[in-house]
Amino acid sequence: EIVMTQSPATLSVSPGERATLSCRASQSVRSNLAWYQQKPGQAPRLLIYGTSTRATGIPARFSGSGSGTEFTLTIRSLHSEDFAVYYCQQYNDWWTFGQGTKVEIK
Amino acid sequence: EVQLVESGGGLVQPGGSLRLSCAASGFTVINNYMSWVRQAPGTGLEWVSVIYSDGSTYYADSVKGRFTISRDNSKSTVYLQMNSLRAEDTAVYYCASLTLDLLLSYYFDSWGQGTLVTVSS
Question: Which residue of B has its CA nearest to A90?
Answer without folding.
Answer: B107
